[in-house]
Structure formats: C-alpha cells, structure tokens
C-alpha cells in the first residue's frame, strides 16, 4: 500500500519504520525541519517501568487537590488553559476515579512491556547505542510517598515485574551518587528498569526507514485530511495528495486535523520541562533512572549528560518558562546528586515541551472509524516508552494480522 504518515516524532518514526519493513510505500509529512523536534526532542528518557512515569495515568499519584494546591503542588493552570483546559482536567480527574482505571493501567502495563521488548529488538537489529542506562529507583522521601504509586506497584508486581522495597542505605548502594544529606525513608527498586535517548533513536529509526524506501517530507505542514478518501492537503499545495491509507501520528495537532471530519479527540497539552546538563563526575551521577514521586520528577543518565524532568502545566503559558518549576528541577538535581553534573555550564539545555495527553492517560491506536484513516497518537508522558510497541501493533492490524497485544483499550471509540 501507499501510506502517508503525519508526524515524525518518535511515534511517527517508529510507525514509518515498521510499515516500511512490511513492504509498504511510506511517505512521512512533518512540519518541522527534522525528526523529533517537538514532544520527542528532550523527553525524560524513561522506558521502563513506563507506568512509574509521572503523569502517565490519572489513577497514579496524589489526589487532584494535593496536585493543584499546597507545598507539594505539581500541576499548574496557566495562560491559555481556559474553559477547555478546565473541562479536560475534570475528565482527567474522573478517569482516575473510574472503576475501569485499574483495567486501563493493566492495558498500559502490557503495552509498556511489549514496547520495551520491541525497542530492545530494534536496537539490537539496527546495532545502535541509544545511551541506555539500566535500573530504576523510586525514591521515597517520607513513608506516605509510597501511597502515591501503590496502585502501580501492585499491578506491576502482579504482572511479574521485579520491584522490591529497599531501605535508604541499600538505595544509596544502588545509586552511590545519592546525597547522604537529603532525607530518604527508603526506595522501590526495579532492576529491569531502563532509560535511553528518545531523540537519538527517533533519528536512527528515520534513517532506517529511509534505507527501506520511506520518504520524509520535512517542512510540510498538513492543513487538512481528506473528507471522503485517504488523502491530505499540504500547506502551499493546490491539489490534495491521495494514498491508500493515512496514519495520524501528529501529537497535539491530531485533534485539530480530526475535528473537521467529525471526530473529536479530547487531546490536551500537558507541558513539562527538562534540564540536561553535562556529566561532571561519573560516580556522583545517576547510574540508572531515579524517580521522585513527591515532586513528580525523573532524573536519568543519558550518555555524557544527566537529565532531570518534571512540571505539568495546562495551557500554553505564552511560551514562557516557569522559573519556580525550573528552580525545583535544579534543586532536585543538586540535592539528590551533588557534583554529578555541571548544572551551571553554558552547555546546559533547558526545554519546555508539550505532552499530548488524553484524559485517561492512554493513547489511541488503530482504526479511526473512517475509511483509510488510522490513528497512533495521544501517548502523553509515555510516548518514548510506548512508541515501538504501538507502531508494531498498528502495522500488524493494518496488514489484517492479529497484533501481539490487545488494542481494544486504545480504541478511538472509547471517547
């Protein structure tokens, strides 16, 4: 088939590779000048356990009141949120209280396991180093921190993942760079946890897809999808382009492209921040991924850099960075791993990007309900962790093969 893909982030690049590997003629349209320039540009990097990613799913973590107000507040409503942002926030809160929340968590856990396995297969097949670091440590500053992740911990254990509770001394043996002065009640340790460089792998997948014949059309903004047949209109072009199928991997732009077709996908941008600093001293830096559930942030080691990510804002905020949030990230980096990174170096990269999220925290993968239009979008905070599995499963469905995982929980018809 001749297939068009809209979007060249990590999900779009993975989808392009899988479809090209299946023998399809693939053309990817991306409005930016390169792959992975938006949500995939500087992600936290956590691959597993994906469900321990802050903001992965509304059933995980503290209640909404604690997230919005008080000294531990981690979610902000900023300029541009408006009534739409408030409605989305209400739906997000209701999803976390829904009786179906645990079933959704189980489906996401399954997608995460499958996607991690596929990511590992591809890194071996393509013989690429994606700056992988192994092991994940969930730091418990105080005893009640365990309550924030308990539903996920129970589910992950039931699924067979090794996740053990350790005391503070053991946590510091696992991560020798952890400060001895920062209060620590204990930790959860996942030896099979993993982190890696999302953008690096997106670029590798783009090249691998091109080697299989896929074409990437950068600087090509899709302004409309075909009303009656698989096709799309590119800004600056008079005639529409026709294909046998179109796959929408456009992140936040997906909702706007679907609306004229009568499909309303309740996507919202949950903006977050990352700070990437050059490595200073290996033994003082994180060796794997470290998660702080109290402040909902992640610290990962990515090659010769240390990256800390956190913050959640509904609304564009005028494109301005929130200095208090950045200060929290800097303090977390220096507080947990003093001397591990050059936090004041001119090479430090500060990034604010959108996580395109649906209210229940799960992506949409599969048929749109319209002929020739397929969806692989809305992965939120877990795009990197879910990309390769989502792409492989979608490619199987499009080829009328049974995917390795059940995609019913990710159907667009749930909205």
Describe this structure in words.
The model has no long low-confidence stretch (mean pLDDT 91). This protein has helices at residues 10-21, 64-68, 82-97, 101-125, 145-158, 168-174, 198-211, 253-258, 323-336, 383-398, and strands spanning 2-6, 25-30, 46-48, 75-77, 133-140, 164-166, 186-195, 215-218, 222-225, 231-234, 241-242, 245-248, 268-278, 289-292, 297-302, 305-314, 349-357, 364-367, 373-377. A hairpin with a 5-residue loop joins β18 and β19. The chain contains ten helices and 19 strands. The radius of gyration is 20 Å and the shape is globular. The chain folds into two domains: 2-40 and 200-266 and 361-414, FAD/NAD(P)-binding domain, CATH 3.50.50.60; 46-99 and 132-194 and 267-357, 2-Layer Sandwich (D-Amino Acid Oxidase, Chain A, domain 2), CATH 3.30.9.10. Strands 3, 4, 5, 6, 7, 13, 14, 15, 16 and 17 form a ten-stranded mixed beta sheet that branches. By secondary structure, the protein is α/β, with parallel strands linked by helices.
Which helices and strands appear, and what pairs or packs with what?
Layout: E1 2-6, H1 10-21, E2 25-30, E3 46-48, H2 64-68, E4 75-77, H3 82-97, H4 101-125, E5 133-140, H5 145-158, E6 164-166, H6 168-174, E7 186-195, H7 198-211, E8 215-218, E9 222-225, E10 231-234, E11 241-242, E12 245-248, H8 253-258, E13 268-278, E14 289-292, E15 297-302, E16 305-314, H9 323-336, E17 349-357, E18 364-367, E19 373-377, H10 383-398
Helix pairs in contact: 1-7, 1-10, 4-5, 4-10
């Amino acid at each position: 088939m001749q297939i068009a893909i809209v979007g060249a982030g990590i999900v779009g690049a993975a989808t392009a590779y899988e479809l090209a590997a299946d023998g399809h003629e693939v053309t990817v349209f991306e409005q930016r000048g390169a792959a992975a320039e938006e949500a995939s540009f500087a992600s936290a990097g956590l691959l597993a356990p994906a469900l321990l990613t802050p903001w992965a799913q509304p059933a995980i973590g503290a209640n909404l009141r604690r997230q919005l107000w008080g000294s531990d507040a981690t979610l902000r409503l900023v300029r541009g949120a408006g009534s739409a942002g408030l409605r989305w926030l209400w739906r997000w809160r209701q999803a976390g209280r829904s009786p179906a929340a645990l079933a959704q968590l189980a489906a996401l856990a399954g997608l995460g396991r499958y996607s991690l396995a596929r990511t590992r297969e591809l890194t071996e097949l393509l013989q690429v180093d994606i700056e992988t670091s192994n092991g994940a440590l969930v730091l418990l500053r105080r005893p009640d921190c365990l309550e924030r992740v308990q539903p996920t911990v129970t589910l992950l254990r039931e699924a067979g993942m090794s996740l053990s509770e350790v005391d503070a001394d053991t946590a510091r043996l696992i991560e020798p760079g952890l400060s001895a002065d920062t209060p620590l009640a204990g930790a959860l340790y996942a030896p099979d946890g993993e982190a890696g460089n999302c953008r690096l792998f997106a670029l590798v997948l783009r090249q691998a897809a091109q080697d299989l014949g896929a074409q990437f059309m950068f600087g090509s903004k899709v302004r409309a999808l075909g009303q009656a047949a698989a096709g799309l209109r590119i800004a600056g072009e008079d005639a529409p382009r026709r294909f046998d199928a179109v796959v929408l991997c456009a992140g936040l732009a997906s909702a706007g492209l679907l609306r004229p077709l009568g499909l309303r996908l309740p996507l919202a941008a949950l903006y977050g921040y990352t700070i990437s600093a050059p490595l200073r001293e290996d033994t003082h830096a994180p060796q794997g991924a470290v998660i702080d559930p109290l402040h909902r942030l992640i610290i990962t080691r990515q090659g010769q850099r240390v990256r800390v990510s956190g913050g959640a804002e509904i609304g564009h905020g005028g494109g301005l960075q929130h200095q208090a949030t950045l200060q929290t990230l800097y303090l977390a980096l220096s507080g947990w791993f003093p001397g591990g990174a050059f936090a004041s170096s001119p090479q430090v990269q500060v990034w604010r990007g959108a996580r395109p999220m649906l209210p229940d925290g799960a992506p949409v993968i599969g048929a749109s309900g319209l002929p020739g239009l397929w969806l692989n979008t809305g992965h939120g905070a877990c795009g990197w962790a879910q990309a390769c599995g989502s792409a492989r499963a979608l490619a199987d469905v499009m080829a009328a093969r049974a995917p390795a995982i059940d995609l019913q929980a990710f159907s667009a018809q749930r909205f």
